Amino acid sequence: RFYFDRVYIEDGIFHYIEEGSKEFSNITRIFKIDRSARNKSPEKSSFPHIKVDELRINNYGFHYVDCRPPKGPVASGCMDYTNIVVSKITGRFHNFEVVDGAIEADIKSLAATEKCGIELRYLTGHIRFADRTIMVNDIYLKDNYTTLIANYLSFSAIAGKGSIKDFLRKIALGVDFKETFLDFRTIGFFTPELQGNSFKIYVTGEVTGPIAHLVSDKLSVHTPNGETVTDIKLSIKGIPNMRKAIFDVHIPKLRPNT
């Protein structure tokens, strides 16, 4: 067991490179990790128990590369899932702990920038990463345009193997919005069909499912001026290709807020 009062990390970059196969990367090669054997083993991680009262990161970077050929060109100003470059990562974490293969911490502040132009300007919450699931509770997030407030935000790997390029099909999303201000220009960083769309709404309610098929049984939405308020049932299939996506929206009652 290792215990630290404070750890400070500055001016570095972490590279993760998938080397032509979903099973092999620079990390598995350097540390001689057998992914298939690890996935079959029920044993807990042998990684030591680490606890840090305060972890600070300043001007760090992250670079993900998938060496397989991309499926097509990436629109300017959109996320390229085969070449993700995150810079200016700056954050402060309390009660950072690694135990039995799980990572947990209180995020006091976190900011970063991705090369497509999206900026994580401020993030707070409690994060836990375990069993192929990332869960952030009591999250408050601001980017270039959107302010996300939620009871929780989670990403879970669906059974089966996949890379970041398979993100939309292989990752299940869960989020419980609390009066989140959603500007569609944020979505435009991930979906080229919505670039330039500045539609804005406030959202409250829970959304779940794989990114490629999101569902909500009850979502309360209203326009910024508060003139239109409604509760909806929603199903969206086909993200991120919004031109071919299928929207199934049930509006039991549309009410003007007068």
Describe the structure.
The protein has helices spanning 26-30, 35-40, 167-170, 184-187, and strands spanning 2-10, 13-21, 24-25, 50-66, 83-99, 102-114, 119-120, 122-130, 133-142, 147-157, 171-183, 200-210, 213-222, 228-237, 246-256. The chain has 258 residues and is mainly beta. The longest helix is centred in the N-terminal third of the chain and has 6 residues, at 35-40.
Strand content: over 45%
Helical percentage: under 10%
Average predicted local confidence, pLDDT: 84
Find the count of extended strands (DSSP E, 2+ residues).
15
N-to-C CA distance: 61 Å
How many helices?
4
Structural class: mainly beta
Largest sheet: 15 strands, mixed
Order of helices and strands: EEEHHEEEEEEEHEHEEEE
Radius of gyration over C-alpha positions, nearest whole angstrom: 20 Å
Question: Low-confidence parts lasting 5 or more residues at pLDDT below 50?
Answer: none
Keywords for this entry:
mainly beta; 258 residues
In short:
This protein is 7% helix and 60% strand.
What's the arrangement of secondary structure elements?
Elements: E1 2-10, E2 13-21, E3 24-25, H1 26-30, H2 35-40, E4 50-66, E5 83-99, E6 102-114, E7 119-120, E8 122-130, E9 133-142, E10 147-157, H3 167-170, E11 171-183, H4 184-187, E12 200-210, E13 213-222, E14 228-237, E15 246-256
Parallel strand pairs: 1-4, 2-4
Antiparallel strand pairs: 2-3, 4-5, 5-6, 6-7, 6-8, 8-9, 9-10, 10-11, 11-12, 12-13, 13-14, 14-15
